[in-house]
Amino acid sequence: MKQENWSDNLIRLIEEKFAKRTQLVQALKDLLEIEREAVYRRLRNEVPFTAGEVVKISLSWNISIDKITGLRSEQIPFQMRPVDYLNPTDQDLGFLRHIIENLNALDKFPDTEFMDVCNKLPRQLLAGFSNLNRFYLFKWKYQYGCYSSEGTPIQFSEVIISEAQRKLTAEYYQAIKNVPQSNFIFDYMLFDYLANDIKYFFDIQMINAKEKKLIKKDLYDLLNYLSLVANAGCYPETQNKVNLYISRLNLDTNYSYVCTHQAKIAFVHVFDKYEIFTFDPKTVGDFKTWMQLKKSTSFPITEVDKKSRIEYFAKQRQLFDNI
Q1: How far apart are CA 7 and CA 54, in angstroms?
Q2: Would you give the DSSP letter of residue 272?
Q3: Is position 1 within any domain?
């Protein structure tokens, strides 16, 4: 029996990423900037991939060097990707489009499961509410010391989202509803934190009364949408399953995973701008087990008695009334 070497491993791993060989060939041609025949020679193992090409493939397609070499180090391969959601580069836009394309294809994989444990609103929900999404981007710019041309902190009114970015955000908001099963566990203080942030920026006059009113409208609309999801136990647009939980314990940041029979990935969402993620099977499995255990210290607001659900959403609306 032929013993696989690193080149065989690499070819096998990249072939798994594409349903058709013609798609793989075109993707390699574009990524490595080589001729089509040169791609075929590499895939036939007649010519080895160069070290630079291996690194480029590893970084671009999230394939760990450990997997390519067949060696297992003691280190867990995490990657971190900064994404500027306000002024995205062409690379950022390409990354986001790739995510949307993958989400739109999930209806072919009914076993797909997504789970998010969060102490702030996840992008999956923010994307559907423009002023609320804009507020989070404004808060990010403020926290990271972004200033106007006059050298003053950027006001909410100065945060402008391009039409192209707005369109991409809307597409993402629709695409995430193609996940066959989604689970969200919210910190029980999540909306309190958000209300406090809005009040703070209004008090220091970085948000005016009209802008605050627009943000509050999005908050009420979001609550109405979440109430609809909680009542039905699914996204009304696609009928795909959604479970909503409220954690009884404080959560320190946002974590998530996506699992299918073909791929598994876990995320730690940090600093509002960065995505730290890993494809390491054992680590993703540990994440999944740990996150599922969070349900034991949470209470569901989907598929529970109507009275409990009404009381929860009424409490949040009262909170927003006082902003």
Answers
A1: 9
A2: T
A3: no
